[in-house]
């Protein structure tokens, strides 16, 4: 997640990406990193069937140099488009 192209980068893992994106966009946790830095645009994601593998990848990705992360994002999403815009997320309901 980011706030703008080449801006602040946030890396996280979840078992429900749609709900997690809504939480970031609605700033459900106002003191969180994403709320403080307005990281509400999904510019890159990977899917895994196994949560442990996803968590391992998250830790690996967080150790990368910033320019490596940017290169990966731009390889898949050169315009830094918010990939969640067309997901028809129901913002009237969030998980509890």
UniProtKB/TrEMBL annotation:
Domain called GIY-YIG: residue spans: 1-71
Domain of life (superkingdom): Bacteria
Record Pfam families: GIY-YIG (PF01541)
Recorded coiled-coil stretches: none
UniProt xrefs under PANTHER family: BSL5627 PROTEIN, UPF0213 PROTEIN YHBQ
Entry's family note: Belongs to the UPF0213 family.
Name of the protein: Excinuclease ABC subunit C
Originating organism: Mesoflavibacter zeaxanthinifaciens subsp. sabulilitoris
């Amino acid at each position: 997640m980011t706030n703008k192209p080449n801006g602040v980068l946030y890396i996280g893992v979840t078992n429900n990406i749609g709900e997690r994106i809504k939480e970031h966009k609605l700033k459900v946790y106002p003191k969180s990193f994403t709320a403080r830095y307005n990281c509400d645009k999904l510019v890159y994601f990977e899917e895994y069937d196994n949560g442990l593998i996803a968590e391992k990848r998250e830790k690996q990705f967080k150790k990368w140099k910033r320019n490596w992360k940017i290169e990966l994002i731009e390889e898949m999403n050169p315009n830094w488009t918010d990939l969640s815009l067309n997901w028809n997320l129901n913002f009237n309901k969030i998980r509890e």
